[in-house]
Amino acid sequence: MDHSDACLKCTICITACPVYRKDGAFPGPKALGPEWHRRSLTGSADPMDRVEDCTFCQLCEVACPVGVPVAHLIAEHKAAQLSEQPWPIRVRDTVLTHPEWVARAPTLARAPAPVSRWLRLSTGSRRPSMRKAPVSRPRRTPGAGRPRAALFVDCFDRGFDQEALTAAQALIEVFGFDVRRIPRTSLCCGAAAYASGRVTQAGRQAEAMGQALRGELDGDEVALITLNATCQGTMADEWSTFLGLNGLPVPVLPFHVFVLQYAPDTFWSALAPTQADPGDWTWTHTTCRGRRQGDGALFQMARRAGMDQVEPLDLECCGAAGSYAFKAEHAGTAHDIGRPAAEQTQGRTGVIWVDSGTCAVHLEQLTGRAARHPAYWLWQAWQAGQAASKGPNPPNPAIARG
Amino acid sequence: MRLVVVGQGPAGMLTADWACRLGAEVTVVAAADGSLGLWSGAWDFRNFTDSGEVIRDPWQWWELHGREHGVGWTREHWAHWWTRWRRTWEAAGIPLAGGEELPSHNRFTPTAVGRMVPVFVCPAWQWAVDEPEPVIWVGMEGLADAPIELAGARFRALTGMAASEVCLPKPDAWAPHWSSLAWAVYVESGEGRRWLSEALTRALGGYAGSSPVLMPQVLGEDGCETLIGELEAALERPVREYPLLPPALGGIRIRDRWKRALKRRGVSSITGTVDAVLKDGVHLRASGASLPADAVVLATGGLLGGGLWLSAAGELLNTATGQTVVWSGRMDELAVAGIDTDGTGYRAVGRVVGGFDSDRHGDSGAVNLYTVASAIEALFGKQTAMEGWGTERGGNDGP
Known about the structure:
The structure holds two protein chains of two kinds.
Chain A: H1 12-16, H2 29-41, H3 59-63, H4 70-79, H5 87-96, H6 99-104, H7 113-118, E1 148-152, H8 155-160, H9 162-174, E2 178-182, H10 191-195, H11 199-216, E3 224-226, H12 229-241, E4 252-254, H13 255-262, H14 265-269, E5 281-285, H15 297-304, E6 309-312, H16 328-345, E7 350-354, H17 357-367, E8 371-372, H18 374-389, H19 397-400
Parallel strand pairs in A: 1-2, 1-3, 3-4, 5-6, 5-7, 7-8
Helix pairs in contact in A: 2-4, 9-18, 16-17
Chain B: E1 2-6, H1 10-21, E2 25-30, H2 58-65, H3 75-91, E3 107-110, E4 116-119, E5 135-140, H4 148-159, E6 163-168, H5 180-188, H6 190-204, E7 213-216, H7 224-235, E8 239-242, H8 249-264, E9 268-271, E10 274-278, E11 281-284, E12 290-292, E13 295-298, E14 308-310, E15 316-318, H9 331-334, E16 347-348, H10 358-361, H11 364-380, H12 382-387
Parallel strand pairs in B: 1-2, 1-13, 2-9, 5-6, 5-7, 7-8, 13-16
Antiparallel strand pairs in B: 3-4, 10-11, 11-12, 14-15
């Protein structure tokens, strides 16, 4: 890895670490990453206690002034202690680092309490449940001359939130694109395995995913659009930087970046506010992994969509961190990290726009407010606008037909 | 106007804040976190003369010597921008020592090793006084950054004032890897608050009088003011902090509050390295993407950012590329010089800009203020920069 040994010991990374800010016993990114790495180069690479408590949010890397891959060094450090873990945890983590299995069989998320306890799955963290009501979407046949886009089907949405996928597809079609969802079969980009220190496994998963996507992309798509910041970061950045894989032939863009770039002005003016009450709030949360792409675009999108009262959540990371909050040993920290969101939203009504499914589940539990992917909320606003423009008449059949 | 600010240290944040208030659509692009977390938060005007003597009246110093450094601002001009800066911080929830008025002269603030150094304005949690007075200097067992015996002895020797040293025993939760930030996290927790309050009350039981208690800068983050208030009520004497080595809690508090305030007003941020300023925006190195902009401000100097560096020979270098940056050589032009790229100008702000030597002279606050204000004047026009704050977007701190 480039810059592995470039640490200046400036400590900026620990000021950015959400776990360090909540847990005095956590040694922090500097000790677990660059300092452990330097020791490992001299042959004394014994893993440290608590290394597995890192959420792999990568905020330390974003903060580092000299480009040390702090979180990725910690992932290597985690790899050094995998064999020391008790075997129920190994079984659990084998499942959690294969979200593509869970996507095929979402009922795995409903492990009964005794099984959960044995596997050390948290019984205090809410698990994802299937979004039942499908979003209706106008059927369209591919049109000659229309620009094309591919919509990435991530494991979470494949298993639990088809609504978000359908809403995203419908919106991209409203912008004038032909859209295909890929990959067809359930595969994982490798993000979950890398976060748990299973770097070799992550490489294998990423390679299979890359192969599938390259086979299904024609290369003339404007972008591969993702609904999950972690998958986006993994494919756009980690594949080439850390796993030695080739990138994809088209740009991999987060949904909101695509929307801000490609939605026509007529789209924005056709939206209607969806808040039940004009006093309702729209909170936006850019997930920790989304922050590499930047912060503020979700907020801008909500404002542009005409939401009256928009406020970013005062969180750098919500604590969900993929499957982190689902692990019994991490649930307490995960809830502590996300608690400011509960305090911020207390006493006010509104909804949360958040660019990751597991973060949405976690934030819903902590705040008691509906938390969904922005594609879902934007589609609601579009439909409300369509209904309003038709007055008392039935909505436009081109839009409402399922 | 779409403005891109490159860098998120003090100068970048200030530029983003003011441009947003004046109506620009601002995006901050930064490769890393900026230097705020390494700095206690003191804003210096001018602390030392060229020969190293302490300056008590920095207003007068700039009036007499500013032009030698290419700065032609009057006292009123400085007052305008210092006031704007003070309001900006207060609106972001960063309280300043010294009440409503701008200080008429430099005050003194302690270092962790007992020196008293000049300061113009600092956050309210930090001890700053007109003249040194007797103090109780507190440290904690297991907090190596606060060597109180050394600090107390030095304070006595340098000021002639009494200083009592009090060392609190470490709490049960303490671990050897605790930095000042970990201490702050603990002290802000329910258990930590109880521990601190009890330990301090016990340790200070025998001390008469009302001398201020100087605490190492570990008194929590967002809850810092509440915690100080509680301690003052319990101890019946003023409680203030002295800054420690990095990570610096003062700067972390400022960074987090200021970022939050900017975010709420719609300032976006992007993680990345800008490698070119072009006619219609900036070019980002890693992604190869371009970000549209009508104007660009470079605030990459700072402690760690590299960015611009003025060599002893008077050459301005880009530390990332090592190339010489074209510049007329006149200090007063540098901040607004318009350094060419593809014919497009950008403005450079921050404490390493120009011929200033802030580490030696203690004027980093003034240099940040001067270079940022000059960029704002150039971008928005002098009249708007002086009078345009009434139309601030989302700000309720107008004059």
